[in-house]
Automatic annotation (TrEMBL):
This is Unannotated protein. It is a multi-pass membrane protein. GO terms for cellular component: plasma membrane. Keywords: Glycosyltransferase, Membrane, Transferase, Transmembrane, Transmembrane helix. Its main location: membrane.
Length: 746
């Protein structure tokens, strides 16, 4: 309320007299006053959106009550929904993939399937890339082997309990002792893994403490409680014993596999995470035959019970999408699926806990980037309180019934490509949110911290991530109108608070970037720099300082976060410009993977030079204001100068600034001339299988035809025809010998 009243007072006492009062003021001064008012109004709108979301977050955390463990286990005892965990991975190191797969495999959820979606090119010439690919391919088997011993023990014990003859509804002393021994064994096994786990950094430490040791401690407490019952000559019901044994079996029973879409010509190879997920989602529920040709492998759909099927992809009720640098706590799936299964949430398409940053960051960049991530966790939780939640793509459970409604089939590329998640922008989660809400689906945010994701450790990798985040909001903005109209058509009560929060989420990067750049670079008159402007911003910064303290940081980090945002201005500006370029040209942007390396990532020279330019502009503004006795303007410019200079030194560094600019200059000089790609043709004799399949001698980049779920196939002209017989058209057999032919004729 303070910010809003200050804005109204500023308009009435400062801007109004500047614009409306007749006098000698020229047109430039009037336009300057109007422009300044629009600028501070948009910035105040963003601060108000943060404050409103923050209030929603506080309400949700105060009213949240955890569902008791026994109720969760009872809810899934007889009819547990099925769940697939999809982990898209592109050239990740083995350690990153291992942590994510282990956190997914140890979910306390029955009938779990984990699929590592390897997106590495299968035929790379780089030895390092081949090494990463081989490690990713071998990882599912390694994790399965690690969990094999406890899995066999607990599944066998569960089967024995289920088929045992019992004369009472209560567990006897022998059965209780066996249950205690199994829980103690599971706790000891997890504790042993925690002791032997190689910890290289704070992410490994987090996994050991919050997954392995936390789960071990939880199971140990259950064992102690059961032993306490035994000491007091008490026991438990047989149904509760079955639930407890199912819990042990579900922790260690998981199917882990991998899938590589780029091995198959019949699947999309567009370089983005959305199409990696879409390719696998399009195969769910299908039985397929892997057909080899000299041009590459293809997938042919077949009947569900066809014995020739080499790949069967089961359809599941839910899908958890989990980035390869993320970790979910053991109860993540159990609690969120329980929420989705409630009758009042039958129209919830996505449930998630917006991810937090791993604590204990080793670098200042990672610590400040993590602070902004934790602030965004608060914002997302608060937006959900007003029905304005967005899907955060690092981790979320998707209801397949909702995702299937987003299906589109596109044959504009000469083959059928199925999409569920929009890949028009690199922020596919944000655009898919509005696609779902326009169809009446909701986004649920569970008000706990159950998911964590890595923050960039250096300025170069931070630039890659934040430029990707800043790109796409403007392109998605028109869909907000469709969301608003669809609510009216369904007769739902519409909220302007929800609309404002969604608008701010999509467009605030654009107007905040432009506004802060103008404040730093343009010498506004002292009369416009009123104390009311400070009053507009004060509640925002005070609330942020309190939220940082609540999230485990210092209140004074609010100054560092402000400097962090100033340094990131050119990065955000580039993302906005790329969005405008996409709107004009219609071309897609390739998904830029955030580097996850131990060495420093070189930052683009432009992103290093521009913050220093802002330092120069702030110094010039301070000096010119001081020489003309405009002390308020000089103080503002001086504060910005100190904050910006401190942020550059701590985030980039003087030495790294020089090195990155020099390396960028050298890279431009050494850039090789582009070579024209030579079109290779297939040899009709040597490549006869591929020629018969593709119908030409052009070597395809991808398959020009693909059989879709409707049983039809698209040809080169975009036409449709009936599904071919795979055995007749796409499988080849050796010719029989002459003697065999004579026998057949006779």
């Amino acid at each position: 309320m303070t910010s809003l009243l200050a804005l109204i007072a500023f308009a009435a006492t400062v801007v109004g007299p500047e614009v409306l009062t007749p006098g000698p003021a020229n047109l430039r001064e009037r336009l300057e006053a109007v422009g300044y008012f629009l600028l501070v109004s948009l910035l105040t709108l963003s601060s108000l959106a943060y404050l409103v979301a923050r209030q929603g977050y506080l309400r949700r955390t105060r009213s949240h009550r955890r569902v008791p463990r026994a109720e969760l286990e009872e809810a899934i005892e007889n009819d547990a929904p099925s769940l697939t965990v999809l982990v898209p991975s592109y050239r990740e190191d083995q350690r990153t993939n291992l942590l994510t797969l282990m956190s997914a495999a140890l979910q306390e959820f029955p009938a779990l399937r984990v699929v590592l979606l390897i997106d590495d090119p299968p035929n790379s010439d780089d030895p390092e890339h081949r090494k990463l690919l081989d490690a990713a391919r071998s990882l599912p088997a390694s994790v399965s082997e690690l969990l094999e011993e406890p899995r066999i023990r607990f599944t066998r014990a569960l089967d024995e309990v289920l088929i045992a003859d019992r004369t009472s509804d209560l567990v006897d002393e022998h059965g209780l002792n066996r249950l205690i021994e199994d829980y103690e064994y599971a706790a000891d096994w997890l504790g042993e893994q925690a002791r032997d786990w190689p910890c290289a950094d704070h992410v490994d430490d987090f996994f050991v403490e919050h997954v392995l040791r936390a789960l071990a401690a939880d199971l140990s407490i259950v064992a102690s409680a059961l032993r306490g019952a035994l000491v007091n000559r008490a026991t438990i019901r047989w149904t509760r014993c079955v639930q407890l044994r199912r819990r042990l079996a579900s922790i260690f029973t998981v199917e882990i596999t991998s899938f590589e879409r780029k091995r198959f010509l019949s699947l999309s190879d567009e370089p983005n995470k959305a199409m990696n997920l879409n390719s696998y989602l399009s195969l769910m529920g299908a039985s397929l035959i892997e057909q080899r040709t000299s041009a590459g492998d293809i997938l042919i759909r077949c009947e569900p019970q066809d014995p020739a099927a080499t790949l069967v992809v089961p359809m599941t009720d839910y899908v958890l999408t989990l980035d390869a640098d993320s970790i979910v706590l053991p109860e993540y799936c159990l609690r969120l699926v329980h929420i989705l299964e409630r009758p009042e949430n039958s129209r919830a398409g996505i449930a998630q806990t917006p991810y937090s940053a791993f604590p204990g960051a080793a670098t200042r960049v990672e610590r400040l980037a993590g602070a902004t991530t934790d602030l965004q966790h608060i914002v997302h939780q608060g937006m959900a309180d007003h029905g304005a939640g967005y899907w955060v793509g690092a981790n979320a459970i998707l209801r397949m019934r909702a995702i299937l409604e987003l299906r589109t089939d596109d044959d504009s590329e000469g083959r059928m490509v199925t999409r569920f998640l929009s890949d028009r922008t690199v922020i596919e989660d944000t655009e898919s949110t509005l696609d779902l809400t326009s169809r009446g689906w909701q986004i649920l945010n569970y008000p706990e911290r159950l998911a964590y994701s890595a923050s960039p450790p250096d300025f170069g990798s931070l630039c890659v991530q934040r430029r990707r985040w800043a790109n796409g909001g403007l392109m998605i903005l028109p869909k907000l109108r469709g969301h608003w109209r669809s609510q009216k058509q369904r007769g739902e009560k519409r909220s302007f608070i929800e609309l404002g929060l969604r608008l701010n989420y999509l467009a605030s990067i654009t107007w905040s970037t432009i506004g802060l750049m103008l404040l730093l670079a343009y010498p506004y008159r002292s009369r416009l720099l009123s104390v009311l402007v400070v009053m507009m911003a004060a509640p925002y910064f005070l609330a942020m300082a309190s939220d940082l303290k609540r999230s485990g940081y210092k209140r004074t980090d609010v100054i560092r976060v402000y400097g962090f945002n100033l340094v990131m201005l050119p990065v955000n500006a580039m993302g906005v410009l790329q969005s405008l370029g996409q709107i004009i040209t219609g071309h897609k942007m390739a998904f830029a993977r955030t580097p996850k390396v131990r060495d420093r990532t070189v930052a683009p020279a432009l992103f290093v030079i521009f913050p220093w330019v802002l330092v120069g502009l702030a110094f010039w503004a301070m000096l010119s204001a001081a020489t003309t006795s405009r002390w308020s303007q000089a103080i503002v410019a001086g504060v910005n100068l100190l904050v910006l200079l401190g942020a550059i030194i701590s985030l980039i560094g003087i030495r790294n600034s020089v090195a990155d600019v020099w390396l960028g200059f050298v890279a431009q000089l050494r850039r090789p001339a582009p070579r024209l790609a030579q079109r290779r043709e297939l040899d009709p004799i040597a490549d006869w299988e591929a020629v018969l399949y593709h119908g030409s001698t052009d070597r395809p980049r991808s398959s020009p035809r693909r059989i879709d779920s409707s049983g039809t196939v698209s040809d080169d002209s975009g036409g449709r025809r009936d599904k071919p017989d795979p055995e007749r058209e796409l499988e080849f057999f050796p010719l029989p010998e002459q003697n065999d032919l004579q026998t057949q004729e006779s």
